[in-house]
């Protein structure tokens, strides 16, 4: 039987979130508003409105305008919007990059981002030599068993990466790295070399290589990879593919506002 106190608490939390969103929408519509106006619009007591605004202000989502008691949208919202636009720009610009690379390399090219402990492919293009037209766009793939995933793992903060490297790591083929310490050592080499490879670690007979894509803040926000059958994308050819991948990633990063020092 559900605890009534817990249920009421959850309902209250959802209501508070809904009201906080209403505050942001109100300020977006009117430009500025005081506590009295916000309370009247939401149909709540002024003390409730004040607590909502204080919580939003603590996250820089709203800010007080001088000493007038009025509040407006804060720069925290701009930061969140910028992150969303960056993702949209990445997908849009990435499509062009994928097509260009796929045409020059003849292999399948993907761009992936980290999402909830997995890699999700947001752009894809097929090269003329692609054996099959398997659509990976929107598909989630394991970080530890793919070249893109290893790039994303390698450049994560330790606080984000740590929980993802706990045993047991799932084995997809006999070549999948499932020992966390072994994977950690490989991620160190990825950071040193600037690229990651996957040799039949997700699918038997499939090789892939990936490099990082940087955002305007200098952080790695995605990985761009080329994949193909092991008989054609051999280990020697993987080493040759790194350079054109890296050049394309540098160009894409610059389009996203990243300029290395």
Give me a quick take on this structure.
Residues 76-258 form the IclR-ED domain. This protein has 261 residues and is α+β, with helices and mostly antiparallel strands.
Features:
261 residues; alpha+beta; Arc Repressor Mutant, subunit A; Beta-Lactamase; 2 domains; 6-stranded antiparallel beta sheet; 3-stranded antiparallel beta sheet; 8 helices; 48% helix; 20% strand
What does this structure look like?
A hairpin with a 6-residue loop joins strand 7 and strand 8 (206-214). The strands form two sheets. A six-stranded antiparallel sheet has the order 6-5-4-9-8-7. A three-stranded antiparallel sheet has the order 1-3-2. The relative contact order is 0.10. The mean pLDDT is 86. With 261 residues, it is α+β, with helices and mostly antiparallel strands. The termini are far apart. The chain folds into two domains: 4-73, Arc Repressor Mutant, subunit A (Orthogonal Bundle); 82-255, GAF domain (Beta-Lactamase, 2-Layer Sandwich). The chain has helices at residues 4-30, 35-42, 46-58, 75-105, 147-154, 158-161, 180-193, 235-255, and strands spanning 33-34, 62-65, 70-73, 108-115, 118-125, 140-142, 196-199, 206-214, 220-229.
């Amino acid at each position: 039987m559900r605890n009534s106190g817990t249920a009421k608490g959850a309902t209250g939390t959802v209501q508070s979130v809904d009201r906080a969103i209403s505050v942001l929408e109100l300020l977006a519509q009117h430009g500025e508003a005081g506590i009295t106006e916000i309370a009247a619009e939401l149909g709540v007591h002024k003390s409730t409105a004040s607590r909502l605004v204080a919580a939003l202000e603590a996250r820089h989502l709203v800010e007080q305008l001088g000493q007038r008691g009025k509040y407006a949208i804060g720069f925290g919202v701009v930061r969140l919007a910028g992150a969303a636009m960056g993702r949209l720009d990445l997908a849009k610009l990435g499509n062009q990059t994928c097509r260009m690379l796929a045409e020059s390399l003849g292999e399948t090219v993907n761009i992936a981002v980290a999402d909830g402990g997995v890699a999700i492919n947001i752009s894809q293009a097929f090269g003329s030599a692609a054996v099959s037209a398997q659509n990976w766009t929107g598909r989630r793939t394991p970080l530890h068993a793919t070249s893109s995933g290893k790039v994303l793992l390698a450049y994560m903060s330790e606080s984000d990466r740590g929980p993802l490297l706990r045993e047991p790591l799932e084995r997809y083929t006999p070549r999948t790295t499932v020992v966390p310490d072994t994977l950690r050592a490989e991620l160190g080499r990825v950071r040193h070399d600037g690229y990651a490879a996957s040799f039949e670690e997700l699918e038997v007979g499939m090789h892939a290589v990936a490099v990082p894509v940087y955002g305007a803040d200098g952080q790695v926000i995605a990985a761009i990879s080329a994949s193909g059958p092991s008989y054609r994308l051999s280990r020697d050819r993987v080493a040759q593919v790194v350079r054109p991948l890296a050049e394309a990633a540098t160009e894409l990063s610059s389009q996203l506002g990243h300029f290395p020092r």
